[in-house]
Amino acid sequence: MPHTWTKYRRNTVQEMRPYEPGEDVSKIDINPIDAANGSPKEGDMIARDPNDDDKGWLVSQDYFAQNFAEA
Fold it and tell me: Which of 7, 11, 61, 63 is deepest in the core (most CB within 10 A)?
């Protein structure tokens, strides 16, 4: 049986900051595909969980450019 896909819009604001080349990213989740493509790199962004400042993840420059605008 084929899956039915539905489009959803996010209704939250995500806090992010630019990745700084050379910074310690040992506590940042980085998608293996992004890592294989050279991330973290200049232009990438670091997002954080608003409920847990210790949780963060990398958002690649391309994904960020296509999906986010400053609030």
Answer: 61
**Bridge partners of 49?**
52
Cβ partners under 8 Å of residue 47, min gap 6: 14, 15, 16, 56, 57, 58, 59
d(Cα 69, Cα 71) in Å, to the nearest integer?
A: 6
Q: Is 22 left (phi over 0), alpha (psi -120 to 50) or beta?
A: left
pLDDT at 53 over 90: no
Q: DSSP per residue over 30-64, as a string?
A: --HHHHHTT-S-TT-EEEEETTEEEEEEEE-HHHH
pTM of the shown model: 0.84
